[in-house]
Design goal:
Blueprint: E1 3-8, H1 10-16, E2 20-24, H2 28-38, H3 42-47, E3 51-54, E4 57-58, E5 74-78
Parallel strand pairs: 1-5
Antiparallel strand pairs: 1-2, 3-4, 3-5
Length: 84
């Protein structure tokens, strides 16, 4: 199972209470399931508005269960930012 680093930004970082943490997950959907399990509550609500980068590439509208993660990869959790 790949181990990835999930990095939280802005409101996601505030809701998680940490800047980053490790997860074992083969897909973005699995990683986000782990995030929701570890941080129930406010972070779950923030995630609904977030966009995601996987190893620097935007996920866009792709289904999260189709986005494969590589061992040592990074998932960036990006809430909407004011001012674009």
């Amino acid at each position: 199972m790949p181990e990835v680093t999930v990095r939280y930004w802005a409101a996601a970082k505030a809701a998680a209470g940490v800047a980053e943490e490790a997860y074992e997950a083969a897909t973005l959907a699995e990683a986000l399931d782990g995030v929701r399990e570890r941080h129930p509550g406010e972070l779950e609500r923030v995630l609904r508005r977030c966009s995601f980068l996987v190893d620097g590439d935007p996920v866009g509208t792709r289904a999260h269960e189709t986005v494969r993660l590589a061992d040592g990869g990074t998932v960036e959790v990006l809430p909407p930012f004011a001012g674009g």
